[in-house]
Amino acid sequence: MLDVWEGEPQANVALADLCVLGTPHIAGYSLDGRQRGTAQIYQALCGFLDQPATIELDDLLPRPWLAQVSLDAACDPVWALNMLCRGVYDPRRDDADFRRSLTGDTASQRLAFDALRKQYPPRREIEGLKVHLEGESEALAQLVRALGAVLV
Questions:
Q1: Using CA atoms, how far apart are residues 115 and 47, in angstroms rounded to an integer?
Q2: Residue 138 burial (10 A CB sphere; 0-12, 13-18, 19+)
Q3: What structural domains and CATH numbers belong to the chain?
Q4: What is the reported pTM?
Q5: How far, in Å, are 2, 76, 96 from residue 15 at the CA level?
Q6: Tens-digit pLDDT profile for residues 33-76
Q7: CB-based contacts of 84, cutoff 8 Å, min separation 6
Q8: Which residues of the chain have pLDDT under 50?
Q9: What Pfam families does UniProt report for this protein, alphabetically (predicted)?
């Protein structure tokens, strides 16, 4: 998977052809990432003004569309990893959009690349996803924690 392209917004088409998945440099473009950046600016401003921060980021974000998942402890960890990640974010849509942007002349490609970033739809991150394990599996528990999800 490749997300950052030398010479952006002009992506190397030959390099993209070698990638299983390619995206238009959308790292940090999740709703959580964008709001986290705004929250950091807010915190810094409050500190500069010597005022307490009265707004919490969690109060501003909408409820995630996938808030909790249950996994059987006997499930295959690779399957669980794929299911958890794709349940929150499936990069295949971004890959398809990115590949469509690589058609046409160079000027069209550059405009399409920029448009994909500027019009990026809201998506949430896996951090904070609640995962219930039905049974005991330290391997799955470790995987869930490594992803940033929360065992419940």
A1: 35
A2: exposed
A3: 13-151 (3.30.1370.170)
A4: 0.77
A5: 9, 33, 15
A6: 888 889 999 999 999 999 999 998 888 888 888 989 999 999 99
A7: 69, 126, 129, 131, 144, 147, 149
A8: none
A9: DUF3410
